[in-house]
Amino acid sequence: MTAPTVDDLVSSIRDLAPQLPYNGLQFRGDEWHQAWGQVCAAMDALGDVEWAIHDYWEADKVGYLHIYGLLQSFVVAQDAANLLREHLTNKKRIRWQSSDEYKDLQYIRGTRNETIGHPTASVIYDNGKSAKRQAGVGIVRVSMSKAGFRYYVKDQRQAKPVEVDMMQIIRTQTNGITQILGDVVSTVKDAVDVHCSRFRDAPIKPVWDEFDESRFDTFDDSAFQGSSRTRV
């Protein structure tokens, strides 16, 4: 059986999330709108990053724009998956700099921060802890290819070369994101199944009056055109 892709898992979340009971987003009142907007944006962002990976594979020649764009998009995808995990499960958001979870994804974030995030003032780490000094980082232009690149970390003590395997980073990113999203899908599916089983044998009854219509203001009114909105 083929493992689900990021797009497959996002599609599952799109199908399942609207079936959650109102309290499934861990929020109440006005915060519900904000949480739902963030969930929708996160799902869109994950799909956008999959296109970014596709564009990278299809590029005839890789340059700075490809390297900068792909590494930045990976951080966007990680933050999006992290937000879905927070809003749709009972797990707290991953604190990337201090957590022991998803060390491989944290390596990608570190590579991004060092090479394209803060190359003129990159923090030096010794044994995983800040050495309280900074360095300048420079990508070796002639080393860039679709397979990866080399960069130097230069501080007052040394100039250390670092090799980046972009093929491995893409695989690592994909594995980490699918792991997070797979957990989200499993948790949401279980919550939906419990909710549905609770009311499966209950008689149909009017429920519209139980809700504040303002919660549905973000829906497109055109969806109701031509249909009756008469209450039962």
Secondary structure blueprint with pairings:
Layout: H1 6-16, H2 31-58, H3 64-88, H4 103-117, E1 122-126, E2 129-139, E3 148-154, E4 159-165, H5 166-199
Antiparallel strand pairs: 1-2, 2-3, 3-4
Integer average pLDDT: 81
Q: Can you tell me the residue ranges where pLDDT is under 50 for at least 5 consecutive residues?
A: 206-232
Which sheet architecture does the biggest sheet show?
Answer: 4 strands, antiparallel
| Class based on secondary structure composition and strand pairing | alpha+beta
Query: Helical element count?
Result: 5
Structure description:
By secondary structure, this protein is α+β, with helices and mostly antiparallel strands. The protein has a domain at 6-115 and 165-193 and 210-215. Helix content is 49%, strand content 13%. The chain contains 5 helices and 4 strands; from the N terminus they run ααααββββα. The protein has a 4-stranded antiparallel sheet. Strand 1 and strand 2 (129-139) form a beta hairpin. The protein starts with 5 loop residues before the first helix and ends in a 33-residue tail after the last helix. Mean pLDDT is 81; it is low at 206-232.
What's this, in brief?
The longest helix is centred in the last third of the chain and has 34 residues, at 166-199. With 232 residues, the chain is α+β, with helices and mostly antiparallel strands.
List keywords for this structure.
49% helix; disordered C terminus; 232 residues; elongated; four-stranded antiparallel beta sheet; alpha+beta; 13% strand
